[in-house]
Description:
The complex is a heterodimer.
Chain A: H1 2-22, H2 26-46, H3 50-73, H4 87-110, H5 123-133, H6 135-156
Helix pairs in contact in A: 1-2, 2-3
Chain B: H1 3-23, H2 27-52, H3 56-86
Amino acid sequence: MREVFFYLFAFLSVAFALVSVTHRNVIKGGLSLLASFIALGAVYFTAGAEFIGIVQVIVYGGAIVVLYLFALMTMDLKSFGKELLRTVSLAAGGAISLFLLFSVLYAGYRFYGGSIPAAVSGAKELALPLFYRFLLPFEVVSVLLLVATVGAVAVGRREE
Amino acid sequence: MTPFDFFVLSGLLFAVGLFGVIVRRNVISLFFSLELLLNSANVLLVGFSKLHGNLFGEVFVFFVLAVAAAEAAVGLAIVVALYRYRKSVNTEDFSILRW
């Protein structure tokens, strides 16, 4: 059963990602990016990573994409104009991304597998490594977020 | 559900994101593509963490999330400041530093 949902949500996630990258309207692209992230959260749920799935929906869907959409609200969408796509960059982008896709697929094909065990990791299981073994990186991340907040306010401030 | 499925999902997301980074000219769309690249890395981290049966990969996903949030905040502030300065979000209008 979880396999069915894994494939369903993985397909949805990639499809919405494709829409968000190729759509000309930025708002619609952002909304389909939101859908892609929520589908990816569901993929984490089917793999048993429950807490990561919840955090994915809250942080990526609820914070990051909504931040982009709020920033778009302060801009004049009509002034964006037509984006002209060059054939050279289309060909280069397609070739490079297809090459990378096939190299990742080849690495996955050569990888000695087995199957993913059905273990659920919630908040309780994740708390032990996060707060004991990775305590110092955790604190460093808090400093990083503080620096990012101060930097964002300082850069985005309107000069008087 | 095998590790190969995670490879496929991650590779597809990465290919889509990289295509967007190369092709798009809108800075906001470039950020969307960058988020897709970060997410494709997260997919493989979760998959390997589940395969190996320890949670270090899932803890690392947290750090990736924090870095992504910081990148989004600072990058968006820069884009808003640039938009105020140039009234555009098209990368071809930001060629003042190009020789």
